[in-house]
Amino acid sequence: MMTSNPVIALITDFGLDDPFVGIMKGVISRISPNAQVIDINHSIPQGDIQRAAIQLWMAKPYFPAETTFLVVVDPGVGTDRKAIMIEDSSYRYIGPNNGLFSYAVTDKFTVRELSNPAFQLTSGSATFHGRDIFAPAAAHCANGVTGKQFGEEIHELLHLPKPQLKVEHDRIRGEINYSDQFGNLLTSIGKFTKSGDQRYHFDPWLPLGENPIQDLEIQIERVKLRLPSGQELSWLETFADIPAGECGILVGSTGLIEIAAFNDSARVNTNLTLGDPVTLIF
Fold it and tell me: Is-above-0.90 flag for pTM?
């Protein structure tokens, strides 16, 4: 059933120098003129599936139920990778089956291949499935088309390797996920929520598998983040608390630990890159 105010949220690596994003929005507006289309990000580095997957995870909690997330970062366009639509208890996700939905889709869900030509454009390009397959599917979702009408259910949702998140008795091991435009380094360590003065509660953002925890609270003055160089950074609560010329760690807006510098780039100052290991010691 179509919602009264359907929302379609977009993430792509198309940038804004070409007409590709506008074309997708044009397709959506022709099929579902009442849909509200929200841009999350079109500046994902070309082909960076992991960054898109993390940013989808970051954005999802702030959208209303029944939002359709249209995510097109698709270096395998035109190959035999499948075009899919995922439904969980609250949202729909549309894009290529290449790992984009690894972190956002964790509850019970159904995956269907977008194979019904009735909900695609007839141009059939092998290079622009965002226009021909994904945008039409999102628009038809907004119009109330149900999952089974798009195609057969499949059981092959591709997942990216999980970033390291390992809890031990006196430390949490993680890694660098990526850097934002300010040079802050987002790690895989978290999710933390404030539970009192100088205290944070840990509730992992990724399933811990064989190493579950029941309850973990951390007092920040007793915590350091150890870098591969052996340098240890203190946990602070705001950017302004970080001394000039130094780096520190804090809980970012996602609840994950970030390495930051005040009015400076932690990426440049630490020379850390994607995948480098970091350890929270307490």
Answer: yes
